Amino acid sequence: MDGRERAESRPQAAVLGEVPLSGETGVPLPVSVGAKLPLGPLPGSRYPDPHIEALDKRFKGSPGTGAVERVATGFRWAEGPAYFRAGRYLIFSDIPNNRQMRLLEDDNHLSVFRSPSYNSNGNTVDRQGRLITCQHSTRRVVRTELDGRITILADRYDGKRLNSPNDVVVASDDSIWFSDPSYGIGGNYEGLQAEQEQRTNNVYRVDAHSGEVTMVIDDFTQPNGLAFSPDETKLYIVDSGLTHGGSAHIRVFDVDVGGGKLTNGKVFADGFAPGFTDGLRLDVEGNVWTSMGWADPNEDGVRCYAPNGDLIGKIHLPETCANLTFGGLLRNRLYMCASTSVYALYVNTQGAAVP
């Protein structure tokens, strides 16, 4: 070994900076199997299931011989469900425990998909079958490639760090739309407490070809769940700003997907206070299915609104519901992430999102 080789083999003394914490690692509760909430149909279920409340004949919350089932439990705050039809499994986030979970549909096997997940929140699947994830503690939106590599899609806007990306959807032109409230930087439980760099809490679009991040709306208190109408002419966005002195409602906009423009915004549904909604998805008929909770326990669960804004049905759950998605090979199984558990229900319609 010559002198040059010896010099290169020496350990580096200089440290440029510390690697930040990945977020609250949490400690999964050491609860025995027998002590966890029971899986299967909820207590008191029969056909027709009283947990499914039809307020209008347009509501297709049950195929008839079906009931609400608890399919997974043992989490601190379940969020962001995304269904992979090719593998027949559900990916969802357990935010405070800093992990993403995977639930196999064939035998209901539950396992940890990724830990740490950097306090992942919203998840979705793009048209190529890749996982898109919003991360609180890294303040970014990432894509898991088919070979397992992670690609950062967005972490800054206008030279400043994002707040804490929350929910995400992918349009047919492969553009990615996500909300960016401040929940993940408000403390050290669902992210890492930090100073807010963006002046407002916004919704953004990532161009599929250039990767450019543009802001599409900036007048929400806390933008949260978002979803396109089946024909992608409308974009529905939740404002859960009641948590910060603002509104609790769903707004709908005319959307130019290719141009990244929102116009003609109006309130689609409100009257949630003192509770509020969080995440939403649409079915093929344009009905809006949205989570509900944080107030009257009798209202915990999911509400369904017709395209004209009429409330047409409810699904009652024993816990506050955060988010939902349509899964199953036929997109007719509604998965609902609600506090410590995941619930599922076969419905008499199909989810609009592709895949």
Entry summary:
The protein is an all-beta fold. It is 2% helix and 42% strand.
Gyration radius, rounded? 21 Å
**In sequence order, what are the helices and strands, one letter per element?**
HEEEEEEEEEEEEEEEEEEEEEEEEEEEE
Low-confidence stretches: 1-15
Mean pLDDT: 92
Q: So, the CATH homologous superfamily? A: TolB, C-terminal domain
Question: What is the count of DSSP helices, taking H or I runs of 4+ residues?
Answer: 1
CATH overall fold name: Neuraminidase
Share of helical residues: under 10%
Distance between the termini: 57 Å
Broad shape: globular
Lateral strand order in the biggest sheet: 1-3-28-27-26
What is the tally of beta strands? Answer: 28
At the first level of CATH, the class is Mainly Beta
Fraction of residues in β-strands: 35-45%
Query: What structural class is derived from the secondary structure elements?
Result: mainly beta
Largest sheet: 5 strands, antiparallel
Please identify, by name, the CATH architecture: 6 Propeller
Structural domain count: 1
Topology, pairings included?
Layout: H1 3-9, E1 40-41, E2 52-54, E3 69-73, E4 78-84, E5 89-94, E6 99-104, E7 110-114, E8 120-125, E9 131-135, E10 140-144, E11 150-154, E12 156-157, E13 160-161, E14 168-170, E15 176-180, E16 201-206, E17 213-220, E18 223-228, E19 234-240, E20 248-256, E21 261-269, E22 280-282, E23 288-292, E24 301-305, E25 311-316, E26 323-327, E27 333-338, E28 341-346
Antiparallel strand pairs: 1-3, 2-25, 3-28, 4-5, 5-6, 6-7, 8-9, 9-10, 10-11, 12-13, 14-15, 15-16, 16-17, 18-19, 19-20, 20-21, 22-23, 23-24, 24-25, 26-27, 27-28
